[in-house]
Amino acid sequence: MSRIDLADGFSIHDYRSKLKLLKDSGETRTLENRDGLRCPACDAAFDRLFVTERRTATFDVPPERPFCLARTGDKLLLCTH
Ligand SMILES: [Zn+2]
Questions:
Q1: How far, in Å, is the centroid of ligand 1 from the Cα of 69?
Q2: Could you tell me the distance, in angstroms and rounded to a whole number, from the CA of residue 80 to the centre of ligand 1?
Q3: Residue 2, domain member (yes or no)
Q4: pTM of structure
Q5: Burial code of 13-23, b = ≥16 C-beta within 10 A, e = fewer?
Q6: CA 53 to centroid of ligand 1, rounded, Å
Q7: Nearest to 16 by CA among 34, 41, 1, 3
Q8: How high is the pLDDT of residue 63?
Q9: Which of 7, 40, 50, 67 lies 20 to 30 Å from 14 when distance is taken between CA atoms?
Q10: 5 part of a folded domain
Q11: CA gap 40, 10 in Å, rounded
Q12: Measured in angstroms, how far is the CA atom of residue 64 from the centroid of ligand 1?
């Protein structure tokens, strides 16, 4: 199983076959992990991925679940497990 690689930033298009887009508000996206992709922070498979280019964002994350943060030059990524 592959891991999300942030060395050259993050583009959803690189993982199009592995991530299903659940919600897209333009600047903020919620994606479902369909193929056991691994988290760029902790290297474990994640459940949902939230991506934003905004300075601030609010995500509906299930309570009491671990989450990881990762960032590139222009994006913030949040993975829930
Ligand atoms: Zn993680």
A1: 7
A2: 7
A3: no
A4: 0.91
A5: eebeebbeeee
A6: 20
A7: 34
A8: 84
A9: 67
A10: no
A11: 11
A12: 14
Number of domains in the chain: 1
Q: Which tokens belong to 9?
A: 């930033």
What domain range includes position 24?
12-80
20: which 2 tokens? 């299903």
Backbone angles phi, psi at 12, to 5 degrees: -60, -30
pLDDT tens-place string over residues 8-60: 999 999 999 999 999 999 889 999 999 999 999 999 999 999 999 999 999 88
The beta-carbon contacts of 58-65 under 8 Å, at least 24 apart in sequence, are 59/28, 59/30
45 CA distance to ligand 1 centroid (A)? Answer: 7
Question: Distance from the CA of 27 to the center of ligand 1, in angstroms?
Answer: 22
With respect to residue 6, please indicate whether it lies within any of the assigned structural domains: no
Please check whether residue 7 lies inside any domain of the structure.
Answer: no
